[in-house]
């Protein structure tokens, strides 16, 4: 029960890594807000999980590209649950296109969700956590925040930005009781990979020394560690959860 009495917000919590993290937090005694797009499975997932666990599980519609929606998410959560001890800044989208063909619209959309969205959520979280005098923010980066990969200019730029922004936020918040870290997942078997064909998946698997994709629960476990008091002296860093990908091959 590492998260007993804590309230957690997970953006992009209706699917994949986010949903697995929501459930792990509930298993450890937290109350959790699934923050995801209107029309996602979030509402149904939250109702189902709320029935199954002692902690509360709520759904709040929130598009991380909209500052007003992000700020409202935090205001409503504090009004209903009283505080926010941990945030998983996890919402994100993929995008694979040759760089000479990427449109402004597609490039800016990936940056707006995967980088600007992370900042909007972190800023709102810092305000609440500074008032409370503590909290933990975990940003979702990627192996592609520290490695390049062909045809992913916007995604790698955004994730690289998340890795370095996490250092800055970690330093800035360090004396205010708030820790800010990131997770760098390798390729994880979630709906995000549905756009890739079997040959591409095989190629990606071969880049992981462990010879397989990761599972969403394995990333959720890393989130749980960074969110919990067990990581009380950990800030400004990125924890890779990548089956050895960034260690080399
Ligand atoms: P999923 O697509 O399964 O989940 C992402 C969730 O974010 C979805 O519910 C999605 O909604 C939601 N979302 C998308 N746009 C927004 C938005 N503007 N505002 C709020 N929510 C939004 O992907 P994963 O679980 O795989 O990805 C989670 C995170 O992990 C992402 O940041 C991703 O970049 C990162 N990651 C994933 C890896 C992988 O291999 N799977 C590897 C490394 C990092 P909808 O489905 O409706 O679009």
Automatic annotation (TrEMBL):
Coiled coil: none annotated. Transmembrane segments: none annotated. Keywords: Oxidoreductase. Its EC number is 1.1.1.100. PROSITE patterns: ADH_SHORT. Pfam families: adh_short_C2. GO terms for molecular function: 3-oxoacyl-[acyl-carrier-protein] reductase (NADPH) activity. Belongs to the short-chain dehydrogenases/reductases (SDR) family. This is 3-oxoacyl-[acyl-carrier-protein] reductase FabG. The keyword Oxidoreductase applies. NCBIfam families: PRK07231.1.
């Amino acid at each position: 029960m590492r998260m007993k009495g804590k309230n957690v917000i997970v953006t992009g919590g209706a699917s994949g890594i986010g949903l697995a993290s929501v459930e792990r937090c509930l298993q450890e005694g937290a109350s959790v807000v699934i923050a995801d797009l209107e029309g996602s499975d979030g509402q149904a997932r939250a109702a189902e999980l709320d029935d199954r666990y002692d902690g509360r599980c709520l759904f709040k519609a929130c598009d991380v590209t909209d500052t007003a929606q992000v700020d409202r998410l935090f205001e409503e959560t504090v009004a209903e649950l009283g505080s926010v001890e941990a945030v998983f800044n996890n919402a994100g989208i993929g995008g694979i296109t040759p760089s000479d063909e990427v449109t402004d619209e597609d490039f800016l959309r990936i940056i707006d969700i995967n980088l600007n969205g992370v900042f909007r959520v972190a800023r709102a979280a810092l305000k609440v956590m500074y008032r409370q005098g503590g909290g933990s923010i975990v940003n979702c980066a990627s192996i592609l925040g520290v490695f390049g990969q062909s045809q992913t200019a916007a995604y790698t730029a955004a994730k690289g930005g998340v890795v370095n922004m996490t250092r800055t936020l970690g330093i800035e918040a360090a004396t205010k009781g708030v820790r800010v870290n990131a997770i760098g997942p390798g390729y994880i078997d979630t709906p995000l990979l549905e756009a890739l064909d079997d040959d591409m998946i095989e190629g990606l698997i071969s880049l992981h020394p462990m010879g397989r994709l990761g599972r969403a629960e394995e990333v959720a476990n890393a989130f749980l560690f960074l969110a919990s008091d067990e990581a009380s002296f950990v800030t400004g860093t990125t924890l890779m959860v990548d089956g050895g990908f960034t260690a080399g091959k």
